[in-house]
Amino acid sequence: MFNDIGALELVTIVVLGILIFGPDKLPKVIQDITGVIRKIRAFSDSAKQDIRSELGPEFKDFEFEDLNPKNFIRKQLTENEDLKEIRSSFDLRKELNDVTDAVNGTEADAAAGPLPAATPGAGPDMVKKPATPAQEQLTRFDADAT
After folding, report:
1. Which ranges constitute the DSSP H helices of 56-105?
2. How far is CA 99 from CA 91, 105, 110, in A?
């Protein structure tokens, strides 16, 4: 409930509490607030137990957190056998690698054979990335020399 309160928000609440209630009444107000929170939690827990007992034994594993749409969808996607089979039939990494190879032209280069010699004075190929930083320095030096 209060897991997302940061240090700055907590300091702001304390300062506002001191300003509104004063330093004398603030401990009593904090005790009252914690008592109310405890009563609400106890009421919530008893209501959950009542609902579980009314649902019967077939819902003994029922969790109220599963009613959250994100959790419900996540649980259905992970536990459904048909979806597991469909998901396993798709190898997205292989598909992505195939598309990447097709875009980069590695399949076409391998099928075409060795590349023709570069024409002199054409300069370095700025599209392809050099394999090592040393090779990049040599390419820059060759380009500057021409």
Report:
1. 69-79, 81-89, 92-104
2. 13, 10, 15
